[in-house]
């Protein structure tokens, strides 16, 4: 309500690479935590209320971090989170936070294959859909990281994919809006060129969904598409 600073935390660490991630707030059995990743600090989780460090995995990020942390089990019946993070040069893995006080966070799995660098993956709680910059879509079992299937989308991506109404949606840098059913393999439903125009060389903003409509930024233009 007031904008007053509740807490501020200065972490120790050093690194040459900037971090572009959006921190993730998630719920555990003992409360809320906020987690972020960077070359300087690795993966760090803080108490949401006090800013006190809850756990960390230093030295796990050797390059710049752009993909944001996600809870790959969000939407499932799991009461505990499984946090996936990554950085440049083929690093993407899931972290199991400490389940009890005194325990350490552990890496649950490492992704194999074409890992994402810029687009943040999306999960439905059962399957993680990781889209590489070069357009390779990989479906991974959320709990184990096992690769279920892969699909080349023949486009380039910086915008993060989303899931809406059970459908996978991705906007390519070239302005292609791709919609697919991914419940059992990859079944592309549509591929539409949105013609970004000369004012926009690339389309890099993640689509947004609200009130049954999808909003897309194409350079200086904002498009809104309805259900039909």
Global morphology: globular
Q: In CATH terms, what is the architecture of the largest domain?
A: Beta Barrel
**How many angstroms separate the termini?**
39 Å
Mean pLDDT, nearest integer?
Answer: 92
List keywords for this structure.
single chain; 228 residues; Lipocalin; Thrombin, subunit H; four-stranded antiparallel sheet; 0% helix; 42% strand; globular
Explained architecture:
With 228 residues, this protein is an all-beta fold. It has 2 domains: 1-152, Beta Barrel (Lipocalin), CATH 2.40.128; 159-228, Thrombin, subunit H, CATH 2.40.10. The chain contains no helices and 19 strands. It has strands at 24-28, 31-38, 42-47, 53-57, 70-71, 83-87, 91-96, 106-110, 122-123, 127-131, 136-141, 147-152, 162-164, 167-171, 176-181, 187-193, 208-210, 213-218, 221-225. The strands form 5 sheets. Strands 1-2-3-4 form a 4-stranded antiparallel beta sheet, with no helix packed on it. It has a 4-stranded antiparallel beta sheet with strand order 5-6-7-8, with no helix packed on it. A hairpin with a 4-residue loop joins strand 10 and strand 11. The N and C termini lie far apart (39 Å). The model has no long low-confidence stretch (mean pLDDT 92).
List the helices and strands and how they pair.
Layout: E1 24-28, E2 31-38, E3 42-47, E4 53-57, E5 70-71, E6 83-87, E7 91-96, E8 106-110, E9 122-123, E10 127-131, E11 136-141, E12 147-152, E13 162-164, E14 167-171, E15 176-181, E16 187-193, E17 208-210, E18 213-218, E19 221-225
